[in-house]
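pinned: reference chain
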Amino acid sequence: MTRIIALSDTHLENDELPPAVAALAGNADLILHAGDFVSASCHAALAKLGRLEAVHGNSDCTKLKKLLPERKVIDVEGVRIGLVHMASHGSDLVGAEMMAREMDVQVLVFGHIHRPLIEKGERLLICPGSTMLPRMSAPSVAELEIVDGNVRGNIIPVGSPACNYLKFAGELARKG
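pinned: its structure tokens
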């Protein structure tokens, strides 16, 4: 069995991961990040916790955009997992499904929408939500377990729901 913790949209300017996130990631066999770390120090903090596979997001610093690919496919116990930041806009998952087909993966982990979701169809589509700036949900990560080529996923809340609209709007305004 392989236990994976998937994150996205951490939006941290520093290396101060929330304790619940650090504990979950530190106990995983693999950490996936679907972009928008924002800072290289956040990326480094996650990399210290274990094996990290990641892509860059639209809000990542220049250093991370040069270091990390836009898309990535990894094989875990014979399961092809795609990792990308932007695959869907909102609740319409047609784009995510098409991207999963294009990448020829059984599982697609993506971010950008800041809301957790898991959709099981022909492929497993997972957005872990956001650990710091969730939209209409609690801060969250996703957990995937792979056993004998079968994947099971669930969302794990890592905090209480809060209205972060003003914080998010302020961040967007600072970025111009």
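why pinned: Helices lie at 19-26, 40-49, 62-67, 94-103, 165-175. DSSP finds five helices and ten strands in the chain.
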